[in-house]
Amino acid sequence: MKKSRNYDLGKDGLWYLTLRLALPTALAQAVNVLYAIVDRMFIGHIAVYGETALAGVGIAAPITTLISSFAVLIGMGGAPIMAMKEGHGEHESAERILSTAFYLLILFSAILTPLFFIFRAPILMAFGASEATIGHASEYLGWYVLGTPFALLASGLNSFVINQGESKKGMVSVLTGAALNIVLDPIFIFTLGMGVKGAAIATVISQAASALVVISVLLSDKTQIKLRFTFFDRTRVMKIMIFGLSPFIIIATDSVLMIVLNSVLQRYGGPGQGDILITCSTIIQSYHLLVMNPLGGITAGCQGLISFNYGAGNSSRVRESIKRVQIIATTYTVIMFVLTLIGSRLFASFFTPSAEIQGLAAKYMIAFECMIIPLSFQYTNVDMMTALGQVRFSLPLSLERKLVFFISTLILPHIFQADAAFFAEPVCDLIAGILSSAIMWTELPKILKRREERGLSI
Length: 458
What we know:
Blueprint: H1 14-44, H2 50-87, H3 91-118, H4 120-126, H5 134-145, H6 148-162, H7 167-191, H8 195-219, H9 237-269, H10 273-301, H11 303-311, H12 315-349, H13 355-368, H14 372-387, H15 391-415, H16 424-454
């Protein structure tokens, strides 16, 4: 077996490994956010109808994220199992898991593409579109879903690159697509006069480029665990799904909750004001992605380290690795909280020339992000439990946070006014951070003790 890594997940220094794995993945996720953010920035500055178009794309955005969550289901479900098997010395089994995941991503693409293309108009109207925004939302989503196979393969397979300890190669695939999207957006939107449709087409082309890069990496002779098209293991399908269920729910329910948020803002805001609040929400969600995706990159990037050492039975390295991941994640959220306080209005100005919307978006942005430091504990605890194969903990913790957000989003505007919905996020972030930390502190010693006594069983 030809190895491409020049470091050892089971022996090298943990600070060296966690930083080497976390930082490139976090950067890749930050760049990946540019797919959505750059589209919205350019769309918001389209003459005459930019603000309305931005609201329309904001309605479509949670649906595009919902589609991409299926890449998370397979990628973050299969990649930790692959890493555990490799750590346990089962190389062929690791390659079978990778190849099985590839075919599952193709299958989900074949189901999701026609479903969302055909029914996009009624779905968008049900999820908060108005007569003024439905045209823009439907046009953007219609073109976007045609690239679903590229989106799922690029994101889903990238997890298998990262969990081999190849964070830099995973970053390159994301950078390729994001850079291409930045170049193509202004050409398609303004130079060719394609507007919202141009933004979606640019994204599809860029995702196709990312997919080609990540597939070429997994086919390369330099890759330790290779993609082999002859492998498909039906017996591992359910296990992949179970492992990926928790991160899938995190992403999928984030999308559903953003749909609920937009619907609530439209309902309680009323005609005119509802669209303004949704425009603000679109800007805030863009910033939230810029904060949360790199945080998820930090924790997900280190899953391979945790899974490998858990598979190898090295409990002390598991414990110490988790501590280092938490320190990095918390440091990151402290920095982002400070940047939110001082830069929210500047960020909003990138999306709209309207001073009114800039001011409202900046105010609500600070409220929305005020508990991101406790949220770093939720992200670390859930992703580390997933890396250990402990779905019985990671899944309920994911659901709990979403349930609190859902209830708060519905109740707060009813008691106060429409914009109170923006306070649902900090409420659930604080509760989730405290609860997940309590579970991790009490259960991790038991999990590692069982591993030592009973061996690896996945």
